[in-house]
Design goal:
Layout: E1 4-9, E2 13-18, H1 23-34, E3 39-45, E4 55-60, H2 65-90
Antiparallel strand pairs: 1-2, 2-4, 3-4
Helix pairs in contact: 1-2
């Protein structure tokens, strides 16, 4: 199971590290976060492609960044389930 470690947090910004993740999940999550009108920016960085751990930063316009992350994670889960169903129905 992947762990998330919060590195910095304020009222409208959070920075966290995600164990054992790659660009796939991080980029999908970033994309969903950027569709949220309360999110000013969502970025991530992986220092080294083989050994680096993604560090993601989310800044909001005053909304709770943890809530924005939870909402985006739920959307990513729903999108993934819908995509899985599409594949199962058509293959």
């Amino acid at each position: 199971m992947n762990d998330i470690r919060i590195l910095n947090k304020s009222a409208n910004e959070i920075e966290f590290e995600i164990e054992d993740e790659s660009h796939g999940v991080c980029n999908a999550l970033r994309h969903i976060l950027m569709e949220d009108e309360n999110v000013e920016y969502a970025v991530y960085n992986i220092d080294h492609p083989l050994t680096g751990k993604p560090i993601m930063t989310i800044k909001t316009n005053g909304a709770d960044p943890k809530e924005a992350l939870k909402k985006a994670a739920e959307q990513l889960k729903a999108d993934s389930e819908a995509f899985k169903q599409l594949i199962e129905e058509n293959l």
